[in-house]
Amino acid sequence: MGAPTTPQLSRRERQIMDVIYALGRATVAEVRERLPDPPTYSAVRALLRILEEKGHLRHEQDGPRYVFMPTVSAEQARESALRHLLKTFFDGSAEGAVAALLDLGASDLSPEEFDRLAERIEQARKEGR
Protein backbone atom coordinates (compact mmCIF):
# COMPACT_ATOMS: atom_id res chain seq x y z
CA MET A 1 0.00 0.00 0.00
CA GLY A 2 1.33 3.44 -0.91
CA ALA A 3 1.21 6.48 1.30
CA PRO A 4 -2.23 8.04 1.66
CA THR A 5 -2.91 10.68 -0.96
CA THR A 6 -5.13 12.97 1.08
CA PRO A 7 -5.06 16.72 1.64
CA GLN A 8 -2.35 18.27 3.78
CA LEU A 9 -2.44 17.52 7.47
CA SER A 10 -3.14 20.25 9.98
CA ARG A 11 -0.42 21.21 12.45
CA ARG A 12 -2.08 19.15 15.19
CA GLU A 13 -2.59 16.16 12.88
CA ARG A 14 1.13 16.28 12.00
CA GLN A 15 2.00 16.38 15.70
CA ILE A 16 -0.17 13.34 16.32
CA MET A 17 1.39 11.45 13.41
CA ASP A 18 4.85 12.32 14.78
CA VAL A 19 3.88 10.77 18.12
CA ILE A 20 2.44 7.65 16.47
CA TYR A 21 5.56 7.19 14.33
CA ALA A 22 7.83 7.70 17.35
CA LEU A 23 5.95 5.14 19.44
CA GLY A 24 4.96 2.76 16.63
CA ARG A 25 1.49 2.37 18.16
CA ALA A 26 -0.33 4.34 20.82
CA THR A 27 -3.57 4.86 22.69
CA VAL A 28 -5.41 8.18 22.90
CA ALA A 29 -3.93 8.79 26.37
CA GLU A 30 -0.38 8.03 25.18
CA VAL A 31 -0.76 10.43 22.25
CA ARG A 32 -2.29 13.14 24.44
CA GLU A 33 0.49 13.03 27.04
CA ARG A 34 3.13 13.59 24.35
CA LEU A 35 1.46 16.53 22.58
CA PRO A 36 2.52 20.11 23.29
CA ASP A 37 -0.31 22.05 24.92
CA PRO A 38 -2.56 18.98 24.62
CA PRO A 39 -6.22 19.35 23.75
CA THR A 40 -8.87 17.40 25.64
CA TYR A 41 -8.99 13.61 25.55
CA SER A 42 -12.13 13.84 23.39
CA ALA A 43 -10.44 16.19 20.93
CA VAL A 44 -7.45 13.84 20.56
CA ARG A 45 -9.80 10.89 20.06
CA ALA A 46 -11.68 12.85 17.36
CA LEU A 47 -8.41 13.78 15.59
CA LEU A 48 -7.27 10.15 15.64
CA ARG A 49 -10.57 9.14 14.03
CA ILE A 50 -10.13 11.84 11.36
CA LEU A 51 -6.61 10.56 10.64
CA GLU A 52 -8.06 7.07 10.38
CA GLU A 53 -10.75 8.27 7.95
CA LYS A 54 -8.06 9.99 5.87
CA GLY A 55 -6.18 6.69 5.67
CA HIS A 56 -3.17 7.59 7.81
CA LEU A 57 -4.02 5.40 10.79
CA ARG A 58 -5.72 2.15 11.64
CA HIS A 59 -6.65 0.77 15.03
CA GLU A 60 -6.86 -2.47 16.95
CA GLN A 61 -8.92 -3.02 20.05
CA ASP A 62 -7.00 -3.94 23.20
CA GLY A 63 -9.66 -4.61 25.80
CA PRO A 64 -11.59 -1.37 26.22
CA ARG A 65 -8.87 0.72 24.51
CA TYR A 66 -8.18 1.43 20.88
CA VAL A 67 -4.53 1.27 19.89
CA PHE A 68 -3.68 3.33 16.82
CA MET A 69 -0.87 2.62 14.36
CA PRO A 70 0.21 4.13 11.01
CA THR A 71 -1.05 2.54 7.82
CA VAL A 72 2.29 3.09 6.05
CA SER A 73 5.85 2.93 7.30
CA ALA A 74 7.71 6.06 8.28
CA GLU A 75 9.95 5.49 5.24
CA GLN A 76 6.97 5.43 2.86
CA ALA A 77 5.50 8.55 4.47
CA ARG A 78 8.87 10.32 4.28
CA GLU A 79 9.23 9.47 0.56
CA SER A 80 5.71 10.68 -0.17
CA ALA A 81 6.32 13.94 1.73
CA LEU A 82 9.63 14.49 -0.09
CA ARG A 83 8.00 13.91 -3.48
CA HIS A 84 5.31 16.44 -2.56
CA LEU A 85 7.95 18.93 -1.36
CA LEU A 86 9.96 18.55 -4.59
CA LYS A 87 6.87 19.00 -6.75
CA THR A 88 5.50 21.95 -4.75
CA PHE A 89 8.61 24.01 -4.09
CA PHE A 90 11.28 22.83 -6.52
CA ASP A 91 9.33 22.10 -9.72
CA GLY A 92 10.25 18.42 -9.26
CA SER A 93 13.98 19.15 -9.21
CA ALA A 94 16.03 17.07 -6.75
CA GLU A 95 19.04 19.19 -7.72
CA GLY A 96 17.19 22.35 -6.71
CA ALA A 97 16.23 20.85 -3.36
CA VAL A 98 19.75 19.62 -2.60
CA ALA A 99 21.22 22.99 -3.60
CA ALA A 100 18.76 24.77 -1.29
CA LEU A 101 19.64 22.42 1.59
CA LEU A 102 23.33 23.02 1.04
CA ASP A 103 22.76 26.78 0.91
CA LEU A 104 20.95 26.58 4.25
CA GLY A 105 23.19 24.17 6.08
CA ALA A 106 26.57 23.78 4.40
CA SER A 107 28.32 25.59 7.22
CA ASP A 108 26.85 23.08 9.68
CA LEU A 109 28.19 20.02 7.83
CA SER A 110 31.36 18.36 9.01
CA PRO A 111 34.01 17.16 6.53
CA GLU A 112 32.83 13.60 7.27
CA GLU A 113 29.23 14.52 6.40
CA PHE A 114 30.37 16.11 3.13
CA ASP A 115 32.30 12.91 2.36
CA ARG A 116 29.24 10.75 3.07
CA LEU A 117 27.09 12.94 0.85
CA ALA A 118 29.67 12.76 -1.94
CA GLU A 119 29.69 8.96 -1.59
CA ARG A 120 25.87 8.85 -1.81
CA ILE A 121 25.96 10.99 -4.95
CA GLU A 122 28.63 8.79 -6.53
CA GLN A 123 26.69 5.62 -5.64
CA ALA A 124 23.50 7.07 -7.15
CA ARG A 125 25.45 8.00 -10.29
CA LYS A 126 26.78 4.42 -10.62
CA GLU A 127 23.32 2.94 -10.11
CA GLY A 128 21.84 5.30 -12.69
CA ARG A 129 19.35 6.83 -10.28
List key phrases describing it.
about 130 residues; mainly alpha; Arc Repressor Mutant, subunit A; two-stranded antiparallel ribbon; 6 helices; elongated
Strand and helix map with partners:
Blueprint lengths: L10 H13 L4 H7 L6 H13 L3 E6 L2 E6 L3 H16 L4 H12 L5 H17 L2
Helix pairs in contact: 2-3
Walkthrough of the structure:
The chain is mostly helical and 129 residues long. The protein folds into two domains: 11-70, Winged helix-like DNA-binding domain superfamily/Winged helix DNA-binding domain (Arc Repressor Mutant, subunit A, Orthogonal Bundle); 74-127, no CATH class. It contains six helices and two strands. It has helices at residues 11-23, 28-34, 41-53, 74-89, 94-105, 111-127; strands spanning 57-62, 65-70. Strands 1-2 form a two-stranded antiparallel ribbon. A hairpin with a 2-residue loop joins β1 (57-62) and β2. α2 (28-34) crosses α3 (41-53). The longest helix is centred in the C-terminal third of the chain and has 17 residues, at 111-127. The protein starts with 10 loop residues before the first helix and ends with a helix. The model has no long low-confidence stretch (mean pLDDT 89).
Determine the mean pLDDT. Answer: 89
CATH topology of the largest domain: Arc Repressor Mutant, subunit A
Strand order of the largest sheet: 1-2
pLDDT under 50 segments (min length 5)? none
Largest sheet: 2 strands, antiparallel
Shape: elongated
- Kindly provide the radius of gyration, computed on alpha-carbon positions and rounded to a whole number of angstroms: 18 Å
**Helix/strand class:** mainly alpha
| Number of spatially distinct domains | 2
Q: Considering the protein shown, what is the CATH homologous superfamily of the largest domain?
A: Winged helix-like DNA-binding domain superfamily/Winged helix DNA-binding domain
Order of helices and strands: HHHEEHHH
Number of helical stretches of at least 4 residues: 6
CATH uppermost class of the largest domain: Mainly Alpha
- Our measurement of the CA-to-CA distance between the termini, rounded to an integer number of angstroms, reads 23 Å
